[in-house]
Write a structure and sequence with these properties.
5-stranded antiparallel β-sheet; alpha+beta; binds S-adenosylmethionine; globular; 28 strands
Length: 806
């Protein structure tokens, strides 16, 4: 139930990303005053300027690619020009999932019915029909409407609070689709290659945790990776709301994600090793893309859009997908997805990957899965647009463009090598410029530009129709592309070579036109970034200021993009460190907190004894800290067995993984003031409480709903002031320090009422000299109080806003 605070850097990031582009009020300084698309007049010097939601190049490009058929074009672009309705998902693994769903179904769906409805929708909010269990919802109000309309304030507050707590996640509807097709089971090892800001990671974790019983952890785990350190911070913040011990967050180039393969000799020395290499049952490959599927949410893209954006990302997307497949177990599933509509980033990438895998990877036909989701088959044919010319085959590419326009971008693939005949004569793509008189500038007979000789339309042989494209006007969403792949055999060895070839092509500093230059931009407007940022109010940021340390990821030092195989010795690294600066080092990674197994038996035993933690709850090898100095450990994190195995493997392979976050915060050292007369130096954190509670036998109190409510409202109650005098007495008999108060479940028998299970509601408190003080955040109090009121008195609870901030 807990959450962390936010660092200053993170707040800045939130604020920047929170800017709502639809709200822009000033004239865009970058826009061309002669641009026909500008809509303001000169008479008013500072009018509100809506975005020009059109771009002739966009129309030309996608009409020619037949992204939708001719008759639908108008409907397609009309919907693209409207703002995106909000959508959100209930965290199906939270203990309040059912309560929240019925609140939406029985309360909000009715009370909001009379509010503004747009876009042909008749309901204010409705479950997304294709999402299992009514856990995902479409709201027919844009964010702007939610913020402005007073009658929607209660709903808006509800969304904000539940999002912050982690009970719901605001997420674009189409972005929820890829994890559903991944078919994740609770024992799966899952890699999310490009994970920030983490809405899909959250979904994957939910699935892993879905049927977990109180006090147990699933066998599986998720590694969520992102290249961008700042976005990794968002990812950590987002996933912290999940309170999971089964997650590792890493910071790597996905295309070079480490395999952590242990060499054979090492295996013999350590026979008890559980895993000897990182291989995954599932891989989510939600790659960086041009992002034109998010136009409804990021209308500034209309202005920036050009076809080169997608072309420049194609190679990276292929590389990332290939790395994902090489880390996938045989029989495992990988989902490749983008929020772009461009076939060069979608069908072309999938076709190229299938070509390279030579039969070891298959496209899965998922047409029978999620039947209510309207989707369109992948295109069998597409073209490449370059320098004002449509190219249908790699044979059409002029030589001087071959470093930019790759054969793999075309439906049949091919190779520029094949275009050289057996005598070594150059192919049609000879790069001789043609003068208007038909002769080349050097007087030789000119070879025509191949672009003037268009080849016949190409079709791919792969069953690309198994891929799916979701378009906005089918179900009032953004656009997305999804391909489901299964690895059926080891990848051909040749892959390593082609990987290097493509790396060279990718990094080659070709003379790129401004169009090509733009192509390397990475889509940072992905839905969830804005979604999280909107959900974090300034108020919450300040309220959580104290917890900022938890979220800090030390700024990573510049890393070579090629990560070296052998880690430099720590001594060498330390020598370079200025004497006074405390540089965090995690194996070969500088500037990142170390991951250290916590083995201090004296402390572990004192914690076990103080809280009466049963031996059935394994602590040995499951505790980690982020501090090499055992004497100054402030927080101890709990990791699942699966995560423990990966962390151990990582140590054995020289810490190839750069871990930015790991584990569930379980114990926190008392501050000097709190802890001076407490026999145990560590308190249990609210995040870790649900996991450890079933194993605790000491420092526990049971409170009636009345006293529990009192605690949540007042935060601090004298023993003598409890309605139930027995509670006050029992509290006085506890050891001073951290304790847990469990809500009694009324009319059940004492044994039943005291049984801890998934529905148990409990909070951490501090037993002082004469009073109990609640140790959960104001927001958690507010949420619990609200849930309690709804359970005790559904009529009252759903309509009374609870203010717990005092
Ligand atoms: C489309 S977004 C991912 C959205 C995310 N899956 C979600 O659902 O919240 C693409 C992400 O890829 C990251 N990225 C860009 N290049 C990368 C690379 N070479 N390796 C890993 N991540 C990369 C970006 O920082 C960005 O966060």
């Amino acid at each position: 139930m807990g959450r962390g605070g936010k660092s200053r850097t993170q707040r800045k990031h939130f604020r920047q990303s929170r800017e709502n582009v639809w709200k822009r009020s000033k004239i865009d300084p970058n826009s061309n005053p002669n641009d026909e698309n500008r809509t303001q007049t000169n008479s008013n010097p500072n009018p509100w300027t809506p975005f020009a939601t059109e771009n002739p190049s966009f129309d030309h490009y996608y009409k020619e690619q037949h992204i939708v058929n001719e008759q639908e074009w108008e409907q397609f672009v009309t919907v693209l020009r409207t703002s995106l309705p909000a959508s959100f998902r209930i965290n199906s693994s939270t203990q309040f999932a059912d309560d929240i769903r019925s609140q939406l179904e029985n309360d909000f769906a009715h009370s909001l019915r009379d509010e503004v409805a747009e876009g042909g929708e008749t309901e204010a909010i409705r479950p997304l029909p294709w999402y299992p269990g009514n856990f995902a919802w479409h709201s027919n109000f844009s964010r702007m409407q939610l913020r402005k309309n007073q009658t929607l304030a209660r709903f808006h507050e509800f969304l904000k609070l539940e999002n912050e707590i982690g009970n719901i996640t605001r997420q674009e509807a189409v972005s929820m689709v890829p994890p559903l097709f991944l078919d994740v089971h609770s024992d799966h090892f899952v890699l999310d290659m490009c994970a920030a800001p983490g809405s899909k990671t959250f979904q994957l974790l939910e699935t892993i945790h879905q049927s977990t019983k109180a006090g147990s952890l699933p066998d599986g785990m998720v590694i969520a990776n992102d290249l961008d350190v700042q976005r990794c911070n968002l990812l950590i913040h987002q996933t912290k709301r999940m309170c999971t011990a089964n997650l590792i967050v890493t910071n790597h180039e996905a295309q070079n994600f480490p395999g952590c393969r242990l060499n054979r000799n090492r295996e013999r020395i350590e026979p008890d090793r559980h895993i000897d290499q990182l291989l995954f049952d599932r891989v989510l490959c939600d790659v960086p893309c041009s992002g034109d599927g998010t136009l409804r949410k990021a209308p500034d893209l209309w202005r920036k859009w050009n076809s080169g954006m997608g072309q420049g990302l194609h190679s990276l997307q292929v590389l990332i997908a290939m790395r994902g497949l090489s880390l996938l177990k045989i029989g495992g599933r990988m989902v490749y997805s983008t929020c772009s509509m461009n076939p060069i980033e979608n069908e072309a990438v999938v076709a190229e990957v299938l070509r390279r895998c030579g039969g070891s990877v298959e496209l899965v036909d998922v047409s029978s899965e999620l039947p209510q989701l309207i989707r369109r088959p992948g295109l069998k044919s597409w073209k490449v647009y370059d320098k004002g010319t449509w190219l249908v085959s790699c044979k059409d590419v002029p030589k001087f463009r071959r470093s930019v326009i790759l054969p793999g971008m075309f439906p049949s693939g091919g190779s520029y090598q094949d275009l050289v005949d057996s005598n070594g004569n150059a192919d049609m793509g000879e790069d001789i410029s043609v003068c208007p008189n038909g002769h080349s500038e050097d007087g030789l007979q000119a070879v025509e530009n191949p672009a003037n000789h268009q080849s016949a339309e190409e079709f791919t042989d792969f069953p690309i129709e198994h891929c799916m494209r979701i378009v906005p006007h089918d179900q009032n969403t953004g656009a997305f592309f999804i391909a489901v792949l299964q690895k059926v055999a080891p990848l051909p060895a040749i892959q390593e070579k082609s990987k290097m070839e493509i790396v060279e092509q990718y990094v080659e500093p070709v003379n790129q036109s401004p169009e090509d230059g733009q192509a390397l931009q990475i889509n940072s407007s992905e839905s969830a970034l804005e979604e999280i940022s909107n959900a974090v109010s300034e108020e919450n940021v300040n309220a959580n200021e104290k917890n900022t340390e938890d979220l800090e990821v030390s700024p990573a030092e510049e890393q070579d993009s090629k990560e070296t195989k052998e880690p430099p010795s720590i001594e060498n690294v330390e020598k370079k460190v200025p004497a006074k600066r405390k540089l965090q080092i995690q194996g070969k990674w500088r500037g990142v907190d170390p991951v250290v197994f916590f083995k201090d038996e004296a402390i572990i035993n004192s914690i076990r004894a103080f809280y009466g933690i049963s031996e059935q709850f394994p602590l040995d090898g499951h505790l980690v800290t982020r501090n090499n100095d055992a004497g100054h450990v402030k927080r101890i994190y709990y990791v699942s067995k699966s995560v423990k195995d990966v962390v151990k493997l990582n140590f054995s392979v020289g810490q190839q993984l750069k871990i930015t976050s790991v584990g569930l915060k379980m114990f926190e050292r008392q501050s000097a003031r709190e802890g001076s007369d407490a026999p145990c130096a560590f308190r249990i954190s609210s995040e870790g409480l649900p996991l450890i509670l079933p194993y605790m036998t000491k420092q526990i109190l049971h409170a009636s709903p009345e006293d529990f409510k009192r605690l949540l409202q007042d935060k601090d109650v004298k023993f003598a002031d409890f309605a139930d005098p027995e509670l006050g007495e029992k509290a006085a008999n506890l050891m001073p320090g951290c304790c847990v108060v469990i809500l009694d479940r009324g009319n059940r028998s004492a044994t039943e009422s005291h049984k801890v299970d998934e529905s148990t509601i409990a909070i951490g408190c501090w037993r002082g000299r004469a009073r109990l003080t609640v140790m959960v955040t104001a927001m958690d109090c507010q949420e619990l109080l609200q849930r309690l009121l709804i359970r005790l008195d559904p009529e009252k609870g759903s309509s009374v806003p609870v203010d717990c901030s005092s």
